[in-house]
Design brief:
mainly alpha; about 0% strand; disordered C terminus; Calcium homeostasis modulator 1; transmembrane helix
């Protein structure tokens, strides 16, 4: 359990690396799911196109939404977007930066799914087999005397081995459509790679100061939320501990007077120290109404990002006016050589 706890703390402290790992796992999972998926084209003119294109698009949308669900920054983005302004102004550039960062990570798994699907070619064959011109494959007499509906039904059976009788035509048509599908897959990968290259190449051309400011405050919002949650947990734990101690003390005020030896006194001192530490963690908030007011004010009116300098008013370079640091004087000895 200690190893798992240490790993969990490491992942929490390195959230960016953790999210990159999650995106990589999702990408591998998408490829593995497609390899384990049993493709079954309906081989009917009314459903071939819907099934083939749906298999290409719907899992991609699911992976994209799953990337948003697994990203913890989505809740941070939503809270920052919907919170009242209060004493802290909302910066749209920070929201755009957080949204773009989440979107870029969420697009990895859908891109892998689309590229793997296009490289395999089964969904492309199922969707566009009806649009084939079968005369290109050498058998001109196959379609003679057939109505348009019969031709469509015959072409819709090409993806199915058991339903299409002419093996050579089916193989030739399958290779033709899969070739087009693989070409589309390589074009898709080329476009995605080129877009990623442009994003990385163009970003340094803009003002780096604005980018660093946006990145800093986006990290600040995430860290502030985590620390606020941790502080609330510590306060709740101390509040419950002190409340329980006071309850037992009120029930039996003489519970600690049973033993008067030295060990009991040491234990009593330790308990008093723990109690004082718990009292300090309460930070002066000792009533339910006060805590509810603190939580309400944090949501409706967050404090301004301008820290107070307690006991350091008028300080310059870390020293208060009228006071100079005491510098220890040192004696230096200089030796001259005639050589």
């Amino acid at each position: 359990m200690d190893k798992f706890r240490m790993m969990f703390q490491f992942l929490q402290s390195n959230q960016e690396s953790f999210m990159n790992g999650i995106c990589g796992i999702m990408a591998l999972a998408s490829a593995q799911m497609y390899s384990a998926f049993e493709f079954s084209c309906p081989c009917m003119p009314e459903y071939n196109y819907t099934y083939g294109i749906g298999l290409l698009i719907i899992p991609s949308i699911w992976f994209f939404l799953l990337g948003f669900v697994l990203n913890n920054n989505v809740s941070v983005l939503a809270e920052e977007w919907k919170r009242p302004t209060g004493k802290r102004i909302k910066d749209p550039t920070i929201l755009r930066y957080m949204f773009c960062s989440i979107t870029q990570r969420s697009l990895i798994a859908p891109a892998v799914w689309v590229s793997v699907t296009l490289m395999d070619g089964k969904s492309f064959l199922c969707a566009f087999s009806i649009n084939l011109d079968i005369d290109k494959f050498g058998n001109y007499s196959l379609m003679m005397g057939m109505s348009e509906m019969e031709k469509m039904k015959l072409l819709a059976r090409i993806p199915c081995k058991d339903l299409f009788e002419h093996h050579e035509i089916r193989v030739a048509a399958s290779r033709y459509i899969k070739c087009i599908s693989q070409a589309c897959g390589w074009m898709f990968l080329l476009m995605m790679t080129f877009a990623a290259f442009l994003i990385r190449a163009i970003r340094p051309c803009f003002t780096q100061a604005a980018f660093l400011k946006t990145k800093y405050w986006s990290h600040y919002i995430d860290i502030e939320r985590k620390m606020f949650d941790e502080t609330c947990k510590e306060h709740a734990k101390s509040f419950a501990k002190v409340c329980i101690h006071q309850y037992f003390e009120n029930i039996s005020g003489e519970m600690r007077s049973f033993h008067h030896n030295r060990s009991s006194m040491d234990d009593t001192d330790k308990e008093e120290e723990d109690k004082r530490s718990d009292e300090e963690k309460l930070l002066g908030i000792r009533a339910q109404e006060d805590m509810n007011k603190v939580l309400w004010n944090w949501h409706t009116c967050k404090p301004a990002l301008a820290l107070r300098k307690d006991k350091m008013d008028g300080a310059t370079n870390g020293f208060v006016k009228g006071h100079t640091p005491v510098v220890e004087k040192r004696e230096w000895a200089v030796y001259y050589s005639k050589v």
